[in-house]
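Most newcomers find our protein records easier to grasp once they have seen one. A record pairs a protein's sequence with a compact description of its fold. An example says more than a description, so a record of this kind follows:
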Amino acid sequence: MRHGNRLLPTSRAIALRPEIRAILQRIENVLTPGTFEPAMATRDFILAASDLGQVLVLPQMIERISREAPGCRVKVLPPPANLHDVDKLDLAIVGAPVSGGPLCWHTLFEDRYVLLARNAHPALAGPLDLEGFTRLPQVLVSPRAEGFEGAVDDALGRLGLRRHVMVMLHNFMTLPTILTNSDLVAAVPLHFAELPLVRQLCGYRELPLEVPRYAMKIVWHTTRSTDPALRWLCGDLVGWSMTSDQT
């Protein structure tokens, strides 16, 4: 469609973009050699990762690339708002829920939530029951900035309870500094609470209720499943078969 001196895609062309991209990716996969030689490769990997994924998972990937595939480069982007846009990437590392459709995923680990607070916070000492927990001023970390409720609030809601969430953050890495300078507390995955940089500032204890476990996943588009480079990249994490948890 012409607009002045420019050619613009029609609405039909825009609607077909995902299908065309998937077709082109399948063609590329067919033409791509069935093996990946990391020592000789010069490929660019395009990844998306949450800040927690960047801290807990990405270092292992980067270390392997720098050691075994020094000619490759890595671009790390924020996760897309819609995970179905992962077809524009090689891989996403996220803790967000994943739906089906054209996506495959593998759960790297599951983690229980614990209560994180500044060192010497009164909530870390002595008994803590549900009533006391709900009265504490709290921070909710929501990487997708979806509001003031999360997994803990869902668990409390099933018990007919609510907690006092004062602050919502979209990333984990600013949380320890905020907790250190306040009486706020936060429910976080145990792996995060045990990071050395976090332990310097904060301590943690068990929550007084059961909360569904946090799941860190790698997500890829179905058209990437046969990519030998991605099979190699994820080898240390999920095994060479790159088996999907999708059913």
Notes: The chain has two domains: 34-109+215-238, 113-212.
